[in-house]
């Protein structure tokens, strides 16, 4: 029998509380989570730590569906958390969604 895992959705804020092409930080003892909003109002959540040297991704520049780390300019794909070529590495990602104008993140 396979176990089914149900995400623990946590309401973070209103979508309008995150500027387009911006981010918001959810502080947690186990590591902060950066919640990003793209120009088309998609939301993504990543551990707020670049896989390269641990830079705060929340302080990076959002462009398209990626964020550029403010420390060494690594480009991180928001949907997968993967560094874009030629860089290699991955930031932990969390499921995120918008419902009725509210942002939710699945924290396990």
CATH H level: which superfamily?
Rieske [2Fe-2S] iron-sulphur domain
Unreliable runs: none
Rg calc: 14 Å
Global mean pLDDT: 92
**What is the count of structural domains?**
1
Structural class, by secondary structure, is mainly beta
H/E series: EEEEEEEEEE
Distance between the termini: 21 Å
State the helical fraction: under 10%
H/I helix tally: 0
Shape label: globular
Number of strands: 10
Q: Summarize the biggest pleated sheet.
A: 4 strands, antiparallel
Proportion in β-strands: 35-45%
CATH class: Mainly Beta
Strand order of the largest sheet: 2-3-4-8
Pfam family, one: Rieske
InterPro entries: Rieske-like_NirD, Rieske_2Fe-2S, Rieske_2Fe-2S_sf
EC number: 1.7.1.4
GO molecular function: 2 iron, 2 sulfur cluster binding; metal ion binding; nitrite reductase [NAD(P)H] activity
Question: Layout of helices and strands, plus pairs?
Answer:
Layout: E1 9-14, E2 22-26, E3 33-37, E4 43-47, E5 61-63, E6 66-68, E7 75-77, E8 93-94, E9 96-99, E10 102-106
Antiparallel strand pairs: 1-10, 2-3, 3-4, 4-8, 5-6, 6-7, 9-10
What does this structure look like?
- The chain is an all-beta fold.
- The protein has a single domain, classed as Rieske [2Fe-2S] iron-sulphur domain (Rieske Iron-sulfur Protein, 3-layer Sandwich).
- The chain has no helices and ten strands.
- The protein has strands at residues 9-14, 22-26, 33-37, 43-47, 61-63, 66-68, 75-77, 93-94, 96-99, 102-106.
- It has a four-stranded antiparallel sheet with strand order 2-3-4-8, with no helix packed on it.
- Strand 6 (66-68) and strand 7 form a beta hairpin.
- The protein is globular.
- The model has no long low-confidence stretch (mean pLDDT 92).
């Amino acid at each position: 029998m396979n176990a089914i895992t149900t995400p623990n959705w946590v309401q973070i804020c209103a979508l309008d509380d995150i500027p387009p092409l911006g981010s918001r930080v959810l502080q947690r003892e186990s590591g902060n989570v950066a919640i990003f909003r793209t120009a088309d109002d998609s939301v993504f959540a990543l551990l707020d730590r670049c896989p390269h040297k641990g830079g705060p991704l929340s302080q990076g520049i959002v462009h398209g569906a990626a964020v550029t780390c403010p420390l060494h300019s690594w480009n991180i794909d928001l949907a997968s958390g993967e560094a874009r070529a030629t860089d290699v590495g991955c930031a932990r990602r969390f499921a995120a969604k918008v419902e009725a104008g509210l942002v939710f993140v699945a924290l396990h």
